[in-house]
Design a protein that fits this description.
Layout: E1 8-13, H1 18-26, E2 33-38, H2 44-51, E3 55-59, H3 67-76, E4 85-89, H4 94-103, E5 107-110, H5 115-193, H6 198-224, E6 233-235, H7 237-252, E7 256-262, E8 268-271, H8 273-290, E9 295-304, E10 319-326, H9 333-338, H10 356-366, E11 370-376, E12 380-390, E13 411-415, H11 419-431, E14 435-439, H12 442-450, E15 457-461, H13 470-480, E16 485-490, E17 498-499, E18 502-503, E19 509-511, H14 516-538
Parallel strand pairs: 1-2, 1-3, 3-4, 4-5, 7-9, 13-14, 13-15, 15-16, 16-19
Antiparallel strand pairs: 6-8, 8-12, 9-10, 10-12, 11-12, 17-18
Helix pairs in contact: 5-6, 5-11, 6-10, 7-8, 8-10, 12-13
């Protein structure tokens, strides 16, 4: 805002109206000033604030309130305590002057001063007042800048801390998944071919349930670290929320009330629907715990941006906003600042892993969106997820016909550098009837391919040592084995198969640790797909081979 007031704003308080004429005449030589006259001394503070006076001229002898009292009142108010005050008096008495200075006057002029002296003194005191206000404004601006800098430094420190934790958790989860695959693969193989009695099978199943829990833990860590390959498709969030309604009600129980608000015309977004489902489910579980099983959970979905105001954490753009809000106990500020950190939880030991919000944070960031957390003690918590809107129409996922532990007679090349993982996987596939070929790395796999062996499917790890990468192996498979299918597996596929954390729709990935049911189902699905393509090619139709 531009302040167009003159530099010098003078307020004259005098019960004699002719004083205005005298002062006006005396200030003719004062360029760029305004003079406001007031006969009522009781209004001195009010007018000085309203006019932002830079100098107040006060007559000493007035009825009701004299100049001493007016000066004291101006000094007592925080908005006028620093305004320069010049006392005007017909008395040239040292005692009176001393008393005026004692109550706060800055200057004392005997009526009526020479115009040159009046202008000089008014200009001097007004200039000092303006300089002081400019200095105070500069200091206030500096304080704001320092506060903003401190907030930015805190945010940067938090981001660096989260990134460091993410790098650590991503590496740990990758190795952890390989260990789980070794344990789970061998347990499943033992269950398949070990001729176990019922008691032994129970023990194996118990151990496998532990592997499954570990796999979920690793998946949450990878999601937080933004190293979880996302199989993103364009989805209709409204359809997803409606499909989740029954599940949400089962999670919250009969004592809780669920309110779902979906804006008509809700946009689509490019996201991994399974991961988004997991995130919303985890947020609902957190809300249930915060409300102790009762209260109201509000699930809201609307279009955001489009010219409307967004939270400061969210960059400008068009979004689909999904909100999960509860009426629970809320979080104090210190808890709120750490809420997204993995393993941070306020729940008792054994009642939570502290990974729900961290998983949501990593998933939303990896999906190109933003997550905003608001909470107040006694008023509940709101988690808002902003996902970029997509103009594309929602896609329908191709159904995968699962046939648990369905085998075949085809030939499969298993490429895996972890010897124990490779051994257990080959054992499972052999038990299912497949002819299995092995390779310890991509270079060895290329040698097998160039030997001329017939191969129907290549099952390859993503992260492997050696001069040939998994991507290069894929190119060779596409070129040398045009009818063969390619299925990747990995503890995580950071920067190899994923572009900005998202898998291309043409890439097929089975994440470790994988269950034999999932492995057999994916293999049968791809092999059937390959057969359809061969039949289409034989009938003269165009087919898409290789990484499809």
């Amino acid at each position: 805002m531009i302040d167009d007031r003159p530099d010098c704003s003078i307020l004259l308080i005098d019960d004699e109206p002719f004083a205005q004429d005298i002062i006006t005449h005396g200030l003719k030589g004062c360029v760029g000033h305004t003079l406001c006259y007031e006969s009522s001394p009781a209004r001195a503070v009010e007018l000085a604030r309203e006019l932002r006076a830079t100098v107040v001229l006060v007559d000493l002898r007035m009825p009701d309130l004299d100049g001493f009292e007016v000066t004291a009142r101006l000094r007592a108010h925080p908005d006028t305590e620093d305004v320069p005050i010049i006392v005007l008096s017909s008395e040239d008495d040292p005692e009176v002057k001393a008393r005026a200075f004692a109550v706060g006057a800055n200057d004392y002029l005997v009526k009526w001063p020479d115009p040159r002296e009046l202008v000089a003194r008014v200009r001097y005191h007004s200039g000092a007042c303006i300089a002081r206000r400019q200095r105070d404004a500069a200091f206030a601006s500096l304080r704001v800048s320092q506060e903003q800098l401190a907030a930015s430094q805190l945010a940067l420190h938090q981001a660096q801390k989260m990134e460091a934790i993410g790098q650590l958790t991503g590496g740990v989860a990758h190795d952890f998944n390989n260990v789980l695959q070794i344990i789970g693969g061998n347990l499943q193989l033992l269950k398949l071919v070990g001729n176990l009695n019922d008691s032994a099978k129970g023990r194996v199943d118990m151990a496998l349930s532990g592997v499954e829990r570990g796999a979920k833990l690793a998946a949450h860590l990878l999601a937080f670290a933004r190293r979880q390959p996302l199989q993103s498709v364009v989805v209709d969030p409204a359809h997803l929320l409606r499909d989740m309604d029954d599940m949400m009600r089962r999670v919250l129980g009969p004592s809780a009330r669920i309110v779902t608000e979906i804006e008509p015309g809700l946009g689509s977004t490019l996201v991994d629907p399974n991961q988004l489902n997991n995130v919303l489910l985890n947020l609902a579980i957190n809300a249930r715990d915060a409300m102790a099983g009762s209260g109201t959970l509000t699930i809201r979905a609307c279009n955001a941006g489009l010219g409307a105001a967004l939270p400061p954490e969210v960059a400008p753009g068009d979004y689909v906003m999904l909100e999960v809000a509860d009426t629970g106990k809320g979080m104090p500020q210190d808890v709120l600042q750490r809420a997204f950190e993995p393993f941070f939880t306020t729940k008792s030991t054994g009642q939570g892993t502290g990974l729900g919000l961290s998983m949501a944070y990593g998933f939303v960031k990896q999906s190109g969106g933003e997550i905003v957390l608001r909470s107040e003690i006694g008023r509940g918590t709101s988690v808002r997820i902003y996902l970029p809107r997509s103009d594309a129409a929602p896609s329908e996922a191709e159904p995968v016909h699962s046939a648990p532990l369905a085998g075949g007679l085809e030939t499969i090349l298993v490429v895996e550098d972890e010897a124990h993982v490779r051994d257990s996987t080959c054992g499972i596939l052999s038990a299912l009837g497949y002819e299995v070929l092995e390779a310890a790395d991509a270079l060895e796999a290329v040698e097998v391919i160039e030997s001329g062996r017939h191969i129907d499917l290549v099952f390859s790890d993503v992260i492997m040592p050696g001069p040939v990468s998994s991507l290069q192996l894929g190119e060779i498979v596409r070129e040398r084995l045009p009818h063969a299918q390619l299925l990747y597996t990995s503890g995580y596929a950071e920067g190899v198969l994923a572009h900005e954390g998202k898998l291309d729709a043409s890439v097929h990935l089975l994440q470790k640790p994988y269950h034999p049911d999932a492995l057999s189902a994916r293999i049968r699905h791809l092999l059937r797909r390959g057969q359809r393509h061969r039949h289409a090619a034989g009938s003269g139709q165009q087919s898409h081979l290789g990484l499809t």
